[in-house]
Amino acid sequence: MSRIEWQDDLDTGIEVIDHQHRRMVDMANAVCEAQARGDQTAIGGVLEGLLDYTLSHFTFEEALMEDAGYEFTDAHKRVHQVYAGRIEDYRRRFRSGEDISEELRAMLLGWLFQHIRDDDWAYVDSVKRNILKLTGDTSEGSWLATALRRFFGAGK
Questions:
Q1: 59 falls within a domain
Q2: In which residue ranges of the chain is pLDDT below 70?
Q3: Domain total for the chain?
Q4: Cβ-count burial of 37 within 10 angstroms (0-12 exposed, 13-18 middle, 19+ buried)?
């Protein structure tokens, strides 16, 4: 199995999201490496980590969309639920002794890249505008001023 290479057209310009997407590609590559070694224990570990990380990523991404008022948030959530169900199914099959590594890798490559290019790119403008609005206002009581005070004690 060959490694999955990140492609620049997958960058959304939202650094935290791009980092998370790259981490998911790294996990897919870890499946490839474990399969090449014949290390089923490592494949199982990556699969568990992938499911956990993916669910966390989805929750974070959905919160960004909701905060931005993105109109297709519910539809995007349903796509996430279907994908999470597929990974859960791979986990179930793996636990029953089935070798799912090549199928998992192919699904990750096809789904992840398609999802980023189509579904995720659809919310990028809304989320970026919201991030700029939140971080651009530094007046007393703004989101940024409140967050800085809360986390760093700034402005006290």
A1: yes
A2: 1, 137-138, 143-144, 147-148, 151-156
A3: 1
A4: exposed
Closest to 26 measured CA to CA, from 5, 44, 57: 5
- Is residue 87 situated within a structural domain? yes
Q: Give the tens place of pLDDT for each residue, 73-98.
A: 999 999 999 999 999 999 999 999 99
**CATH code, domain carrying 26:** 1.20.120.50
Q: What is the pLDDT of residues 10-23, one digit of tens each?
A: 999 988 899 999 99
Question: Domain for residue 62, yes or no?
Answer: yes
Contacts 24+ apart (CB under 8 A), 29-32: 29/3, 29/4, 31/1, 31/101, 31/104, 31/105, 31/108, 32/1, 32/2, 32/3, 32/4, 32/101, 32/105
- Burial class (CB within 10 angstroms; exposed 0-12, middle 13-18, buried 19+) of 17: buried
63 found inside a domain: yes
Range of the domain at 45: 12-123
